[in-house]
Amino acid sequence: MLRSLLLYLAQATWAKSWVMRLGIAQRTAYRFVAGDTLDDAMIVVRNLNQKGMDVTLDYLGESVFDEASAREAADAYVTMLDCIAAEDVNATASLKLTQLGLGVSEALCLDNLRRILTCARGHGNHITIDMEGSDTTDATLDVFRTLRAEGFDNVGIVIQAYLYRSDADLRALAAEGSFVRLCKGAYKEPPDRAFAEKTDVDANYVHLTQQFLSAAHCEQGAYLGIATHDEAMIRAAQAHIRAQSIPSTCFEFQMLYGIRARLQQQIRDDGYRIRLYVPYGTQWYPYFMRRLAERPANVWFILSNFFRR
Question: Between the CA of residue 10 and those of 188, 192, 207, 291, 298, what are the distances in Å?
Answer without folding.
Answer: 10, 21, 29, 10, 15
